[in-house]
Amino acid sequence: MILQLEKRPQASPLLSVLSPLLALLLTAAAGLIMFAILGKAPFSALYTYFIEPLTDPWMREQILVKATPLILIAVGLSICFRSSNWNIGAEGQYLMGGLFGAMLPVYFYELQSSLLLPAMLLMGMLGGALYAFVPAILKARFNTNEILSSLMLVYVAQQLVDWVVRGPWRDPGGFGFPGTRSFNESATLPKLWQYGDAHWGAVLAIVSALIMWFVLSKTLQGFKVTVIGTSPRAGRFAGFSAGRLTVVAFLVSGALAGLAGIGEVAGSVGKLDDKLSLGYGFSAIIVAFLGRLNPLGIVAAGLVLALSYIGGEAAQISLGISDRATRVFQGLLLFFVLACDTLIHYKISLTGLRQQKSQGAAG
Amino acid sequence: MEVWVSILLSICAASTPLLLAATGELVVERSGVLNLGVEGMMIIGAVTAFSVAQASGSVYGGAGAAIFAGAAFSLLFAFLTLTLVANQVATGLALTILGLGLSGMIGESFVGLPGLKLDAVAIPGLSGLPVVGPFFNQDPLFYTSIVLVVAVAWFLFQTKAGLTLRAVGDSHDSAHALGINVIAVRYFAIMFGGACAGLAGAYLSLVVVPQWTEGMTAGRGWIALALVVFASWRPWRVLLGAYLFGAITIAQFHAQATDASEFSHLPQWLFAIIAWATSLPAQFLTSLPYLATIVVLVLIAGNRRLTMINTPASLGKSFVPDR
Amino acid sequence: MKRLLASLLTASALALTATAAVAEEQDKTKACFIYIGPTGDFGWTYQHDQGRKSVEEAFGDKVETAYLENVPESAEAQRPIEGFARAGCDIIFTTSFNYMDPTNKAAKKFPDVKFEHATGYKRESPNVSTYSSKFYQGRYVQGQIAARMSQTGVAGYIASFPIPEVIRGINSFILGAQSINPDFKLKVVWVSTWFDPPKEADAAKALIDQGVDILTQHTDSTAPMQVAAERDIKAFGQASDMIKFGPETQLTSIIDEWGPYYVERVGAVMNGTWEQHDVWHGMAEGNVVMAPYTNMPDDVAKMAEETAAKIKSGEFEPFTGPIKKQDGTDWLKEGEVADLGTLLGMNFYVAGVDDKLPQ
Questions:
Q1: What is the DSSP letter of A70?
Q2: Domain assignments of chain B as residue spans, ordered by start
Q3: Is the confidence at residue B12, as pLDDT, over 90?
Q4: What is the pLDDT of residue A123?
Q5: Per CB distance under 8 Å, which residues of C are interface residues toward B?
Q6: Which of C56, C64, C57, C75 lies closest to C32, judged by CA?
Q7: CB C199 within 8 A of CB C193
Q8: Does the domain made of B2-310 have the CATH classification 1.10.3470?
Q9: CATH number of the domain enclosing C62
Q10: How many Å apart are CA C84 and CA C21, to the nearest integer?
Q11: What is the pTM assigned to this prediction?
Q12: Contact list, C198 vs chain B (CB under 8 Å)
C-alpha cells in the first residue's frame, strides 16, 4: 500500500478550519501516550498542561506575556510566508530590535522624556527592519537563498548582542555579569494594570494582528501578496513585482520582530542582557503555521503555544514532568499541523503498490 | 608530541562532527531538499550512541545505533515533506525541536555517568611516520569523515547514480519526465543525511566528551548547514570549511591562554598581527563563519554561471508528481 | 473518537480538582528549589539537589519538595519563582547569582513565603535571606597541591564569568600555589558559560597544549576532568566529587555541601524560628568539604590536610597579608586579613595571576 495525493481543485474551506483543531487533538493523543510511557497519569497530566493554566488569573496573564512576542513575530512572518519569502531569521531581527531600541536608554541613561519610549519602539522596529532588509535585498537583487542568509544572520546578531552586553554596554556595577544597566522608568513599557506583569506590548501585538488581517484580506496589496505567493508567474502577468514584494514583506516582518524584541527588553526585562534570545523567532514559525498564516488565527495560535510553555512549568512544579516534555509537545504539534495541512490541498488515498511502480529509481 | 601537532589534533576533533553532518546535508541538498533538522538528528544520534554503548558495552555498537537512529529519525522528515508535501522549512524546524526534547527525555537516566570512549586506532605503517604519524593514530570516526568526503565527491560526480541525484536536485520536473523516481531518490538522500548527522552526534558523546548532557550539540547542526552553503555544495570545500571553523573554535582559547609577549621574538609585523588578533572580541571570530557564508551566498548567486553549476535549483521546493 | 476524548478529558479534570482539594488539607511544609542547570550536571546543580534530598530524608512525611531545572538567569526566572510561591511553597531556594532581582521582586509580592538566595547580596524585604560558601578556602588548598604536583610549574584554570566568586577562587588558588612555589604560574581561559561540556573540553585541551599539567575549573561539567584523564595530567574536581570521571586524575575536589544548611532552614520554617540573615559558611561549618586526596604522594596529602585543618579551625585564612594586587599596589599589610566587604565584591587579581581580567 502506498499513500497517494490528489490535488483538490480548490483548498477545502472546511478542512482549513478543521485541520489545526485536528492537529491539536492528535498532539493531545500523542501526549497521553507520552505521559503514560513516562509513568504519569495521562489525563491529569494533560489537564495540568493545557487546562489548569486557564483556570488561574495569574497564569492567564503569564500566557499573555509569553504570547506577546510570539504573536508579534508570527504576524510579520505571515506576510512573508504567504508571499513565499522564507524568512527564518526572525530571531536575529528580534535581537536587533532589542539592540537598537536599547541604544537610547544606554547612551542617554538620565533622559526623562515622554518621547523616549515611543522613540525606543521606533528604533526597535528600525533595527529589525534594517536587519531583515539584508536577506531581502540579497534575494531581490542577487537571487540569494533567503532561508540560508536570514538564518546565518541570526548567529551574527547573537554574537553582536553578546559582545555589546559583555563589552561596551556592560553595567559597571553589575559584578561583571553580562547586561546593561537597568533602564529608568521612563524607558520601561508600562504595565497594563497595577502589580501585573502584562505590558503594553500585548496591546501592540493584538493591534498589529488586526491591521495585518485587514491589509491581507481586504486590500489590493493583500491580494497581491497571495497571488505572487501562490503563483509568481501569474503575479508577473498581472504586473506585480515579486522583488518589491520580497523587500516589503521582509521589512514589515523585520519591523514587527524588532518591535517584539524591544518590547521584551523594555517591557519584561528592563535592560538588555545576554538572555534575550530565547528562541521566540523560531517558535513564532510554529505559531505562524499553526495559525494558518492568518493574523487572527496567529493570535489564537500564539496563545496556544504560550499555554504549552506555562502549562509545562506548572506540570514541572506539580507533577515533576521535566521541561523536555514541553519541547516534545511543541515539536509534535508542529508535525501534526503540517501533516494535517496536507488535507486542505490534497485528497489522500491508499493505492496498491502495483499502480505506483515506476522505473529509474536510483540512490 | 610537538605542541602544534597536538593543537592540530584538537582542531581535528572539533571539526570532525561538523564535517560528518555537513557532508550528509550536502547530499540531501544536492537532491533538492533542504532539511533544517540537522541539529535534531545530531542530538538524537548523540543520545543513542551513548545509551547503546552503555547498555551493550560496545562503542562500535553505539556508533552503529546512532547511524541507524539518525536515519530513522530523518524518515519522519522525509515522510512529511515528500509523501505529504509539507513545507520543508517548517518540518525541518519541527525535527530539531522534537529531537532536542526527545533526546533529553531518553537520556535522563544516563546523565552524570562516565561514558565509554571510542579509542584511537593506529593505521599500520603510517602512524609510525615522523611528524605526521599522530594524524594516523586517531579515532575511527575521524578516518570515516575523510573517507566519506572522498566517497561522496566520487559518487556525486563520477557515478550514474550521482548524476541521477543531481538531476533530481536541479530540476525535479525534468527528472520525473525522464522517468526517474524523484521521491525515492530523495528518500534515500534524506536518510543518508540523517545517518551522517547521527554519526556526527555519536562523535560528540563518544569521542569529544564521553558523556551524555542535554543539548550537547550546542548549535553544531546549524553550523553544518552553514558549511554546506559556504562550500557552495562541493564536498571538498565542505572539508575546508569544517576545518576552518574548527580552527577558529580552538584558536579562541589559545588566544586567551597565550600572552602576546611570548611572540615578541617574531618579526614586528607578524607580532603586531598576533597582538591585534588576540585582542579582538571572541564574538567577532565566532561570527566570522556565518558572515563568510553570506558572502559566499552572494558571490555564487551573483555569478550566474557558478550558480548554474553548483546550486541545486530545486532546493527547498516541494515536488508532487502529476498523474 | 473526538467526543470520547473530550468527555474523558473533562471527567479526569473533575477527578483531579477533587484530589487537589484533598491534598491541600494536609499540612506539609513545602520547600522548593530553582536550579540553573539540569540536576544531572554532576556539579553545581547536582549538589543543590543533593541538599534537597537531605531535606526529604531529614523530615520525611512532614515535608514536600519540588524543583525546576534549567531556569534561565534572566527576567524569565521571575515567573517560575512566583509560580512556586503561588503553588504553596513555604520556602524557596533560588540557587544562582542572577536570580537576585527576580527573587527580591517575588519576595515583596509574597511576604509570607521565605526566600533564600544563594551567592547574592540583596535582601530588600525581611523574608529574603542570602547564603553562600567560602569555596575559595578549598582553592587555596588546591593551589598548594598544584604547586607540589606540577612538573611544568603552570596550572590551567577554566573560568566562567568574571564575578567576585570566581575571581576569589583564582586569587586564592594562586596565593596557595605561590606559598609553595613563588614562581608558579596560572593560565586562565574564560569560557563565558557555566555549563557547556564540549566547549569546556576544548578549553581544557587548549590549556594542556599550552603546557599546563594541572587543570582546575570553575564551570560545572565533568568534561575538563575527562580531558585531563585522557591527556594523562592531574585535575581538580568542581562542586561535587568527580572521581568517577577521573579515577587516576582527580587530586581532590571542593564539594559544596548544602544539605546541613537546607535542613536547618527548612526546619526553622517548620518551627517558626526562621529569620532573615546573611551567612557565608565555609570549611568550619561543614559547607565546604574536600574530597579525599587521591593520586598524590602521602606527604603532599598530609600538607593539604594540615592546611585544610588550619583553615577549618580558623587558625589560618587564605587572604592574609602581605598581598599585592596584580598592578603592583599594596592590598594587605603583613598579617592583615581581608575584610568581608572587599572579598564579596572582589574585582581585581592579586599579584602572580598571569591573565588580564576581562573588563
A1: H
A2: 2-310
A3: yes
A4: 96
A5: 38-42, 46, 70, 156, 187-192, 195-199, 201-203, 205-211, 221-223, 226-227, 230, 244-245, 354
A6: C64
A7: yes
A8: yes
A9: 3.40.50.2300
A10: 18
A11: 0.86
A12: 204, 208-209, 216, 218
